[in-house]
Amino acid sequence: MTESGKPLLYSYFRSSCSWRVRIALALKSIDYETVPINLIKDGGQQFSEEFQALNPMKQVPALKIDGITIGQSLAIIEYLEETRPTPRLLPQDPKKKALVRMISNLIAGGIQPLQNLSVLKQVGQENQLTWAQKAINSGFNALEQILQGTAGKYCVGDEVSMADLCLVPQVANAERFKVDLTPYPTISRINKSLLALEAFQVSHPCRQPDTPPELRA
Each residue of 55-88: b (16+ CB within 10 Å) or e? Predict the structure, then answer.
């Protein structure tokens, strides 16, 4: 927390994991301050001793709130949900809640890490695009099938949930890696509906304090 009592979000504008948390903070109208951690500059500011003391995994996001520091985007969102439950991001119905968590974990554990910066560095510059496309297509093939059974207006029914907070940043990653989204009409439809919502717009990578001028919108 800052002297003003605001939570502190350690974030990188392009980080999809950080974007998930920014959406949650916006939806729940939580005023916070951003501490930019540039994952590229200076060999990656996440590797500094100062940040490593904050988050030993050397990853963003990290949120300082209520006297504790939390890493891992889904853990942060679940904490916000339990301490600031309005609006609800996890359905009350146990079956729907399980579906939301399943979709969230599918993206956060089964797609995003495979095309993350740290992994792409290992596969070599010439293989990065193909690798990322393969990882995203593999996950989206499963996700499209699942969403055809769970979706209403959004990922699970007609209320925005944690699953939607994971979906939009992952679609942005897919677009960045030039993935053809034609085979994924349900994913594309939900993404379009969500991007019309203010919380998804104000949290967008093109509107962050650390967004480079040429990428601002």
Answer: beebbbbbbbbeeeebbbbbebbbbbbeebeeee
